[in-house]
Amino acid sequence: MGPGSGGQYPPSPYLPPPAYPTAYMGGPPQSGPAPGIAYAGFWIRFLAALIDGIKILRKILAAPALKPYAVDEIHPGPKVTSDEDILAFCRKTGSTVYHPTSTCRMGNDPLAVVDQRLRLRGMDGLRVVDASVMPDLMSGNTNAPTIMIAEKASDMILEDAR
Question: Least crowded by CB within 10 Å, which of 32, 34, 110, 138?
Fold first, then answer.
């Protein structure tokens, strides 16, 4: 690697949240349910994974095989060492990895937006062919599954055209 070369190694915890548990708090129905404790636990684990991810990445980049190539840490910087400071950095700079899924889910139940052949319910001639049809969030990158959805959709479109 020459001068000016660099890398970016953000921690990306792929943790789908639990099915949104709720607890009825005894108020009127209009007040809605209160978030359950399991959902709060998810966020605690997620934030801990971000902190651990920075620490693990630092250990990997300090390993003898990579140390010659990891000259400087720019962000969050070598002075950011406490869990609180690492978390503050993550909160300030964190963002999504632009892999939205599950907003137009596929299924057989009344809440599914598309059927098992990716046809939009209630509108003839329109299919949804992207990561939004995934029924649930996944614990991994969405690229390969989205390609698989598109490949299968093209087969179904050709079948239905015959």
Answer: 110
**What is each CA distance from 43 to 39, 57, 136, in whole angstroms?**
7, 21, 18
What does the CA dihedral 111, 114, 115, 121 come to, rounded to 10 degrees?
80
H-run or E-run covering 35: strand 34-35
Query: CA 72, CA 21: separation in Å to the nearest integer?
Result: 43
- Among 93, 92, 94, 112, residue whose Cα is nearest residue 104: 112
Q: Is the pTM of this model over 0.85?
A: no
Contact 15/45 with Cβ under 8 angstroms? yes
- Average pLDDT score over the chain: 82
DSSP state of 62: H
- Cα 101–126–134 angle (5° rounding)? 20
Catalytically active residues are 99
Helix (H) or strand (E) holding 45: helix 37-62
pLDDT in tens, 133-159: 998 877 778 899 999 999 999 999 999
